Amino acid sequence: MSQLVAPGQKLIEEQLPDGRRVYRSAIPLPGNLPDILARLVKWAVEQPDKVLLSEPGEGARRSISYGEALARARAMRGLLVGLYGLSKGDCVATLGPAGVDALVLKLACLSGGLVHAALPPFPFRDGVEGEATRPFLDAAKPKLIVAPAGHPAIEGMGAISLIDLARESTGEAALDADEQTAPDDWAAIFFTSGSTGAPKGVPITRGMISSNQGAIAAMWPFVAETPPVLVDWLPWHHVFGGLDNIFKVIWNGGAMHVDSAPTPSTMDASIVLMAEVSPTMHIAVPLGLKLLLDRLENDEVAAAAFTRNLRAIFFAGAGIDAGLWRRLASFRDRHGDFQILSGYGATEAASTITLSPAPLERPGELGHPLPGHRIALVDVDGRSELRVSGPNIAPCYLIEGRRVELPMDELGFYRTGDAAVIRPRSDGIPVFGFDGRLAEDFKLSSGVKVRTGPLRAGLMAQCAPLADDIVISGEDRDRLVALVFPSAAGRDRIDEISARIAGWNAANSGGSTTIARFGLATTPADRAKGELSDKGQIVQSRYLRNNAELFEALQAGGGQAPKSA
User: Fold this and answer.
1) Which of 68, 202, 330, 336 has the most CB atoms within 10 Å of its CB?
2) Which CATH number fits domain 441-555: 3.20.20.80, 3.30.300.30, 3.20.190.10, 3.90.79.10?
3) Residues in CB range of 33: below 8 A, 6 or more apart
4) Where in this chain does the record put each AMP-dependent synthetase/ligase domain (predicted)?
């Protein structure tokens, strides 16, 4: 069996002339990396009949092979150029969900040197140009908008139907050659999630895609040596699903099986699919992991089917709470020969900045810099901001039709806005650990700084498994208050939650950590209002802004003071 991670993983520390310490991986980034389209061509020649992607269909699943994908992409490119008058560098914006036709359009854009812009679905739900949609259209400036059949944008915005485009291109003769491109050419535009501010367009170059996938394969050789088989539901308007996962599959000659977004009612069908295709890697966010474990923890047959060929479960290391980590680690210990890996990234870095150099020991591990990249930890008001430089960093933002510089420091490092520390592992390998988002920190009226990320993580661990999330407030006030989103197990156990928070207060009695009053949320965060990200996590800044009256009521004496049982 292939090695999970490359041998010789070390964190190399260097000191710059200004005294700044920077860190890089001991694993080198391979040179002369091919273009992602060249990887598709390679597999289309070597394994033309292998399934590249499948999607749910009426009855049997619908699939497309590598050979078909390349031929259909080149044919669709011919239609985009010949019928719609597009040329290299033009932008095609799409509202299509993950699937066969969406993949062909993505690959057609690569073939023609077009820029593929993945629009978030919610602002465009009514299919009209307005305040909600204008920032995205101004940023991408699409020459053509493609939408699912029946979408309001076809009538309201002059979009063309994706299924019609796919049908029309079926009869087209595939072009023999692809457009000449360079690593600096833009391949895609993705939009930041808005978790720390208004969404911004981020152009992704072809070179960024190559460096990202080449670096991942260098750190994790099992991805290249055991072509990944993914059962994946992550949305394609985010870089996690629509850039990193699908191109990880294409880069390494694997297969993606598109699944429904996880809900309690869809998990049975997902388990059946997993049993049929035997995923080698499961890539998820906390929301999906919770539902998966809910379904598998007490079903030995389903767990065995899921883990039969599984090499790794991967999640973003900054986003898992201690209670979910314990469940995941316990599941790993009981089932199969797989490991847990994590990473950390951003839209501005083509998805990935760090990856695990070894199987995880605890939540919050971010890992090591990708090969070819450097990380600096720079003091910002008493905390260390993680900053990164390397070939994955985007050339600019796209805002209001203008190119705007990313927040770079004087040495050319991208400022992520996230805090990190270096933590030793039991095997002696130091790794970066997540230390919260700088933008979420605030000060009490006393001037005391509240580090929201570590505080929330500590409270979540204290209240596990009774709380799904906690929002903390107190900026410019005398004390902290919290709104607890109870889990199914915690809805009728407010006294126990109160005792857990009281226990936290006893052990963390400072003004920046003590919760004076708390309440239980009676309704979930509203995705339509931007309070919940597509990763299933509450956007604290947005929730606080939208629900200020709830926290004012707690400050005024509502809810209850934590008390021991």
Assistant:
1) 202
2) 3.30.300.30
3) 210, 211, 214
4) 42-398
